[in-house]
Design goal:
single chain; mainly beta; Methylamine Dehydrogenase, Chain H; 5-stranded mixed beta sheet; 4-stranded antiparallel beta sheet; 1 helix; globular; disordered N terminus
C-alpha cells in the first residue's frame, strides 16, 4: 500500500513541541525501599564472531545475541538462560548489518541489510548454518539506516531513515518477505529513528531525533501510531528546549511508553509518556546513557552502562531493587526467562548473560 502521509498540522505541532524554556533532566531518586538483587547464574559465551552485541532477543527458552566485530563480520549466538549453555552459533555473510531476530514457526530469521538490500536471512543456529536471504519486497529503495523490532503477531516493524525524505515506518510480513504497510513519520527530513516498539494493543511507539533550529543539536521525540499505522496523538518532546537524544524503549501493558533521554549537558533519565499525555514524566535520573529497558509483569527494569540494573515501581519511579554488574561496560538487553527470572545481557570486557531473581 502507498505511504500514509500525516497531516501537515502534525509537523507544526512537532516543531512547537521542540521549543520552550531551557530544561535539563532532573528528579529525586527514592531508594529507601531498594534491596540488592540476586544473581542466579551467568555465562560468558565464546563466539565465532567476537565483538559488540548489537541486538538481543529473549524468547523465554533462548537468548539470541546478534554480534558484530570491527572487521565487518557478524553472527548470531544462542544461549540457554537456564543452563548458560551455548546451543548454537551462525556466522552471517560478510558486511551484513543485522537489525533483529525473529523466531517463527518456520524457523529463525535475521532481518537486516544484506548484499541484496534489506532482507530476511534464514539461519539454523543448532547446525551453524546460514540458509540464504530473501529480499523484502516493497522496501524503500533509498533507505540509509534502519532499526527493527519483532511484534507479538509475528510480524516485523522497521523504522527507515531515507536519503530523499523524512523517515518512514514499515510493517513486514516474515512469511512472505513483503512490506504490508508504510507510514510517513511526522518529523522533518534529516531526522533519525532510534527505536520502535509495539504496544500490547497493537499500536506502535517510535522514538526519533529531530534536528534543532541551531543546526548543531538534535531533540528527542516520541511518536505514537495506531495498529493501522495512522497517527495517534501529537509528537511528544522528551526534553523540551534542550539538545537531546533517546536510547532504550519499552511499552507497558497500559500503553505507557518508557525511554531514556540523554541531554547534551551530560545528564540522563528514564522518562514515561502515558497514552494521551503531551509531556513526559521523569522517573529516574541515571548515571549514564545509553540504556536498555523492559517491562515485566508491571515492573520497569533499567539496564544502564557501567553497568547497573535497577528495578522500578512504575508509579512514581521508586527504586525497589539494584545490582551493580561491573564498573565499565555497555548495556545490551534484558527480558524475562521462561522460569520467571530476568535475563540480563551486558558487555563487561566480554558479553555476558546473567540470570537475575525477580
Amino acid at each position: 500500500m502507498p505511504p500514509r502521509s500525516l497531516p501537515a498540522t502534525l509537523l507544526v505541532l512537532a516543531a512547537a513541541a521542540l521549543t520552550g524554556c531551557t530544561s535539563t533532566v532532573a528528579g529525586a531518586i527514592d531508594r529507601a525501599g531498594a534491596v540488592p538483587l540476586s544473581v542466579l547464574g551467568s555465562t560468558t559465551p565464546t563466539s565465532s564472531t567476537p565483538g559488540l552485541v548489537t541486538g538481543v532477543t529473549i524468547t523465554g527458552e533462548e537468548t539470541l545475541l546478534l554480534v558484530a566485530d570491527p572487521y565487518g563480520g557478524s553472527g548470531l549466538t544462542v544461549v540457554s538462560p537456564a543452563t548458560g549453555e551455548v546451543t548454537g552459533e551462525v556466522t552471517l555473510p560478510q558486511d551484513t548489518r543485522a537489525d533483529a531476530v525473529l523466531v517463527t514457526d518456520s524457523g529463525t530469521l535475521v532481518a537486516g541489510d544484506y548484499a541484496s538490500g534489506y532482507a530476511l536471512g534464514r539461519v539454523d543456529p543448532a547446525a551453524g548454518r546460514f540458509g540464504g536471504s530473501e529480499p523484502v519486497a516493497g522496501f524503500p529503495a533509498d533507505a540509509t539506516d534502519t532499526v527493527a523490532a519483532a511484534i507479538p503477531d509475528g510480524g516485523l516493524l522497521v523504522g527507515v531513515e531515507r536519503a530523499d525524505g523524512a523517515p518512514v515506518l514499515v510493517r513486514v510480513d516474515p512469511a512472505t518477505a513483503r512490506v504490508t504497510a508504510t507510514a510517513d513519520l511526522p518529523v522533518p527530513a534529516g531526522s533519525g529513528v532510534e527505536a520502535v516498539a509495539a504496544a500490547p494493543d497493537g499500536s506502535v511507539v517510535v522514538t526519533a531525533v529531530v534536528p534543532r533550529a541551531d543546526g548543531d543539536t538534535t531533540a528527542a521525540v516520541l511518536l505514537r501510531l495506531d495498529a493501522d499505522l495512522a497517527p495517534a496523538g501529537d509528537p511528544v518532546a522528551l526534553l523540551p528546549g534542550e539538545g537531546s537524544a533517546p536510547t532504550g524503549l519499552a511499552v507497558g501493558p497500559d500503553g505507557t511508553a518508557y525511554a531514556v533521554v540523554a541531554a547534551d549537558s551530560g545528564s540522563a533519565a528514564v522518562v514515561a509518556v502515558a497514552p494521551g499525555a503531551d509531556a513526559p514524566e521523569t522517573l529516574l535520573p541515571v548515571e549514564t546513557a545509553p540504556a536498555e529497558l523492559a517491562v515485566v509483569d508491571g515492573e520497569l527494569w533499567v539496564l544502564h552502562d557501567r553497568v547497573g540494573l535497577t528495578r522500578l515501581d512504575n508509579d512514581g519511579g521508586t527504586v525497589t531493587g539494584e545490582l551493580r554488574l561491573c564498573d565499565d561496560g555497555s548495556a545490551d538487553g534484558l527480558g524475562a526467562a521462561a522460569d520467571g527470572s530476568l535475563v540480563v545481557v551486558a558487555t563487561c570486557a566480554r558479553a555476558t548473560v546473567w540470570r537475575v531473581a525477580r
